[in-house]
Amino acid sequence: MLPGRGRDGRADRDARILGTRTVWTAVGDGEFFCPGCGGDRNYQRLTGRRRFTVLGVPVVARGETGPAVECAACHHRYGTDVLDHPTTGRFSAMLRDAVHTVALAVLAAGGGPRTQLALTAAASAVRRAGFDDCTEEQLNALVEALAADTGRVYDVPCGPGLAIELHEALDPLTPHLAPAGRESILLEGARIALADGPYTPAEREVLATVGSALTITAEEVTRLLAVACTPS
Length: 232
Description:
Layout: H1 7-17, E1 18-34, E2 39-54, E3 57-71, E4 77-78, H2 88-109, H3 116-129, H4 136-150, H5 160-170, H6 179-194, H7 201-213, H8 218-229
Antiparallel strand pairs: 1-2, 2-3, 3-4
Helix pairs in contact: 2-3, 2-4, 2-5, 2-6, 2-7, 3-4, 3-6, 5-7, 6-7, 6-8, 7-8
C-alpha cells in the first residue's frame, strides 16, 4: 500500500483539511493571581466561538466556548474560577483586617479598663499583620468607641454582634489559608488574652468563635488554647 493511502494516512489528511478553531474575543481585564506565574498579573477575560474550518479557513460557526481568563504574562488560559483567589495585595489586606478584628474582639472581652500588657500584645500582633503604625492608644480608643456605639458590656460572652463582626472578617479569608495559617490567627488571639492573666470565660467564648469562623474544630480549639498557655 502506498504511503498516505492507509486508514491512518487518510485520517491525517482529513485532519489537515477539516478541523475546528476557537476565535477568542476580549470582554474585560483586570489583575489576578496567576497560578502559573506564582504572582499577581494582569489578565484578559475572553469569550470564544468555535468555528468549523476547511483548509484552516473558518467557514461555519459551531457555538460558543469559555469564558476563560488569559494571563498577560505567560498567556496561559484558566477557568474563571481562578479569579476567586485573591491577589497578593488583597490577601494581605484581608489578613491585616482579620488579625485587627480578632485583637479588638479579645480586648473587648477581657474587661475594662484594658491592661497595658494586653494592649501591648494586641498592638504587636496587629503590627506583625501589616498595620505598621498601630499603637496601644489607637486600639484602646477603638474598643471604647465600639462599646459606646453598640452598648456592649465588657467581660461577657461573645454576643451576636461581635460574632458577626468576626465572621465578616474571617469567612472570606479562611478558604485561602493553610491549616497552619488558621491556627496562627487563633494563637495570636490567645496570646493577647493571656498577656495579663488566664483566660476569662468571655475570652474563651470569643476565641471559640474565632476558631469556628476559621473552621477549626472545637476539640482542636481547646488543644490550641492549652498549647498557648505552655511556656515556649
